[in-house]
Write a structure and sequence with these properties.
By secondary structure, the protein is α+β, with helices and mostly antiparallel strands. The protein has one domain: CBS-domain. It is globular, with a radius of gyration of 19 Å.
């Protein structure tokens, strides 16, 4: 679980969301209303909502205007959530059952306290792993040379 929760609000512009995604390694942002979880925005949600011409030489005023859309226009509402006392098995079951890529973790008052991605599950399931220079985790058995008989 990632405890570093970054949130945006329903009335924030997509330019704010884009800036956060552009300057961080996050793939999901939690949307809050009055400190309670309202929904989730993924980097893919943002890419679908803005012009593909942004950050190119052919960008037009109309392309730039897509950044003025608001979070409430693209947020995935009523996300599937868990509380901190759930197990990694509970998380894995939800990932298999639903087409989701993150699960917000909320407290008893539905305030976000963390977020779990499928990558967190993979890292947890690979207790014998080595960190490669690129930052990816791989099981030790995949790094060991094959044994001859």
């Amino acid at each position: 679980m990632t405890n570093q929760v970054v949130t945006v609000h329903l009335d924030d512009k997509l330019s704010v969301v884009k800036e956060i995604f552009d300057n961080s390694s996050f793939r999901h942002l939690l949307v809050v209303e009055e400190e309670k979880l309202f929904g989730v925005i993924s980097d893919r949600d943002l890419l679908k909502a803005i012009s593909p011409n942004l950050d190119t030489k052919v960008v037009t005023y109309r392309d730039l205007a897509t950044l003025n859309k608001r979070v409430h226009q693209i947020v995935s509402r009523k996300p599937i959530t868990l509380t901190p006392d759930h197990s990694i098995t509970d998380v894995a079951v939800l990932f298999c059952k639903h087409r989701i890529s993150c699960i917000p973790i909320v407290d008893d008052e539905f305030r976000p306290v963390g977020i779990v991605s499928w990558r967190d599950v993979v890292r947890t399931l690979l207790p014998c792993s080595k960190l490669l220079p690129c930052g990816e985790m791989v099981p030790c058995s995949l790094l060991d040379p094959p044994r001859g008989d």
